Amino acid sequence: MGSLLLLLLFLLTFLFGRMRQQGRTRLSRFIPSMVFFRVSLAAALVSNVVTASGLEGDIVNWIAVIAKTGLYVAFVELGLDVVWVLLIRLSPRKVAPPRILKDLALVAATFAVVATELNSQGLLTTVGSAAVLGGLAFIVGPGSATQIGNISSALAVQVERQYVVGDWVEIAGELGRVENISWNSTYLYDDTDDRYIVVPNSLIDRSKTINYSRPSHGEYRFEVEIGLPLAMPPGQAMQVLKEILNSHIQIINKERNAVGIRSVDSDSINYALKFFIADFAGRNRIRTEIFSSVWYAIERAGYSLPHSTLDLRTERSLRQLQIRRSGEAQEKSFHKLRDIELFFSLSDDEIRSIVSNDRLLGFGPGELVVKKGEVGGSMFVIMEGSCAVLIPDPSDSASMMEVAQLKSGTIFGEISALTDAPRTAWIKAIGHVKLQEISQRQIEAVFLNNQAAMAEFAKVMATREANLKTFTAEEKKTFEMGLVERMTQTFSKLMNS
Predict the structure, then answer these.
(1) Distance of alpha carbon 247 from its chain centroid, rounded?
(2) Are residues 268 and 354 in the same domain?
(3) How far is CA 424 from CA 31, 367, 374, 477, in A?
């Protein structure tokens, strides 16, 4: 009956071991590796068989010692697992200490337990010690020159603190977050391809290691290189690139942003953009947004990114193509504005005057279209894409929170443009966005010749504000009259300037 129970427990160790590997439950972290439990149970089973066969002597004593020490070491390992879970909870970064430290603690505890048990049994002899240590070496791992090199490098990493669990590092050309440091290998998590990269520790001594998390954890230096056309003056190019870095929400320490010329090629000037980010895991998305922002900013400046092409089109055909595309874009803007209630009071000719004299602007993902606190000189209508409305986060004054999204056909910035009031929020592009700009000058030109249109304009805006802020009829009238007065003052300033 006892042997049957031991066999059942022996089989259960494999079930628990599988549960530990899968880690599907919270309690699985407390399940030990089961190696020493299996050694203990296997020795106990062998002891029962030997005893049942009538054998006696040193072999029985040795088997009993293995069974007891295996059980003691198993409980020591379980205790270390509990300690490691507590260390994770107490760690500010919520990461476990390196695996090698746990293994070293287990080996030291195992030696102590084995020595104590052998001494208590009177078996602490040269032959006995050699046998037990040989068995322990077999359990921990086979020794070899490579293993010794791996262990030596792992110890050097821990002593010199080259990197720790949670750091973002590049070892032997492999980039990832350190997940574990074992006797033999360092485990890196590659967030780009969602995979683990196992780097033998012996490579650390033979290759370059870059630690992106040191010396300042939470401030990661990043660099992007991009080529701009030779025709674009370097001063203007560096100013545009610096503005892109300064306006990106997730770039920190903006006073340390740097833009410089890296090299000059036959068809481009290559610039290096250096900046800091707080989350290294977001580096690829931020880099994509910066490249995208550069494309749109260069287009708005009247240039295009350098490319080697053989263009057989004549100057005349290119000019005709540009005129045709401009006409199509203006026609699209006209129909979009014609369907917006705010412009119902304007004639077709007045709307066509606006779209033919003001720009159609493109913005890329993450670019700020308007900034809070700026005095607005234009209002905008979303032709394509959508934008996010951001305000200061009440819980963190240095951060922003999204409060609304503006879809295609939405107009924004009108109060600021018409009254010279500061912008009340940030507007950020979500994806690719096309905006029809409507400048103060164009609105002024329309309203100077159409006072009735200005009054209707103010009435529609007052109705919109009343719906948003639940004005009474009297408050709505007051807002409307005040708006007309502020618009008149703004246009008077424009005329004087």
Answers:
(1) 18
(2) no
(3) 56, 17, 8, 23
Provide the residue range defining the domain that includes 264. Answer: 220-300
Determine how many CB atoms are found less than 10 A away from the CB of residue 166: 15
Examine residue 305 and state whether it is found in any structural domain, yes or no: no
Domain boundary among 92, 117, 141: 141
Under a CB-based contact definition with an 8 Å cutoff, are residues 107 and 56 in contact?
no
Tokens representing residue 222 in the block:
């990043």
Look at the chain and report how many structural domains it folds into: 4
The CATH number of the domain holding residue 480 is 2.60.120.10
Dist CA 448 CA 34 (whole Å): 87
Cα–Cα nearest to 342, from 439, 491, 462, 451: 462
pTM of the shown model: 0.53
Mean pLDDT, each 10-residue run in order, the chain (497 residues): 66 68 61 69 70 65 71 75 75 65 74 72 57 52 52 64 85 89 84 89 81 84 91 87 91 91 90 93 91 91 78 75 82 88 84 88 86 86 91 83 89 83 89 87 77 75 69 72 71 60
Assess if residue 147 is contained within a domain.
no
